């Protein structure tokens, strides 16, 4: 297999064929049900090594102009009737592991994006290392503000990454520990 810019970062079992990528996009849009942004789909598939960002973007644009995907709202997209036919007729041609990983990837990506919008992490260097301030918010007020020490930038970034995985769970666990 020849490696090029359009296959870089794709894990074994990931998709390189644009037709397969189109089927996968339709499958995702059909299963998720909520409008999705083009960038969210492309970045999620790229982040998890399932397809190349540029190939996904190109396939998405072709599907939009062909009616498989329909614009809904300002930046959201949903599956169209033609896309539903593609899912019904062709989704089984994709390996089930790819279909499952794609759904997991888009859900995780959308949840992470939402967590990063609603919550905040501030990393500040101090004389001993770094202060990592994690803030859980519901959008209108701060529910929790916690500052942790990290000895180096790598540890600070790890705290940040782990916080964004599930800030609600962190809040709930701290609340149970402190209020019980």
Description:
It is a single chain. With 180 residues, this protein is an alpha+beta fold. Helices cover 54% and strands 17% of the residues. It is elongated and about 55 Å long. Strands 3-4-5 form a 3-stranded antiparallel β-sheet. It has a two-stranded antiparallel ribbon with strand order 1-2. Strand 1 (69-72) and strand 2 (76-79) form a beta hairpin. The relative contact order is 0.12. It is built from 7 helices and 5 strands, in the order αααββααβββαα.
Structure keywords:
alpha+beta, two-stranded antiparallel ribbon, 180 residues, 3-stranded antiparallel sheet, 54% helix, disordered N terminus, Arc Repressor Mutant, subunit A
How are the SSEs placed, and which strands pair?
Blueprint: H1 18-32, H2 38-47, H3 53-66, E1 69-72, E2 76-79, H4 81-90, H5 96-118, E3 120-125, E4 130-137, E5 142-150, H6 153-165, H7 167-179
Antiparallel strand pairs: 1-2, 3-4, 4-5
Helix pairs in contact: 1-3, 1-4, 1-5, 2-3, 2-5
- Separate helix tally: 7
Quick one: how many beta strands?
Answer: 5
**CATH top level of the largest domain?**
Mainly Alpha
- How would you state the average pLDDT, rounded? 86
Distance between the termini: 58 Å
Q: What strand line-up does the widest sheet have?
A: 3-4-5
């Amino acid at each position: 297999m020849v490696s090029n810019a359009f296959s870089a970062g794709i894990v074994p079992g990931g998709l390189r064929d644009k037709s397969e990528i189109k089927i996968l996009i339709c499958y995702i849009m059909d299963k998720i049900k909520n409008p999705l942004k083009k960038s969210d789909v492309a970045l999620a598939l790229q982040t998890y090594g399932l397809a190349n960002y540029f190939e996904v973007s190109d396939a998405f644009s072709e599907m939009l102009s062909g009616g498989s995907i329909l614009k809904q709202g300002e930046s959201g997209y949903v599956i169209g009737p033609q896309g539903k036919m593609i899912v019904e007729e062709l989704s089984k041609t994709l390996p089930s592991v790819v279909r499952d990983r794609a759904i997991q990837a888009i859900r995780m990506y959308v949840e992470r994006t939402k967590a990063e919008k609603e919550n905040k992490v501030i990393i500040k260097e101090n004389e001993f290392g770094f202060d990592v301030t994690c803030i859980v918010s519901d959008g209108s007020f701060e529910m929790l503000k916690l500052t942790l020490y990290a000895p180096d930038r790598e540890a600070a970034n790890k705290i940040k990454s782990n916080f964004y995985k599930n800030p609600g769970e962190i809040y709930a666990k701290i609340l149970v520990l402190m209020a019980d």
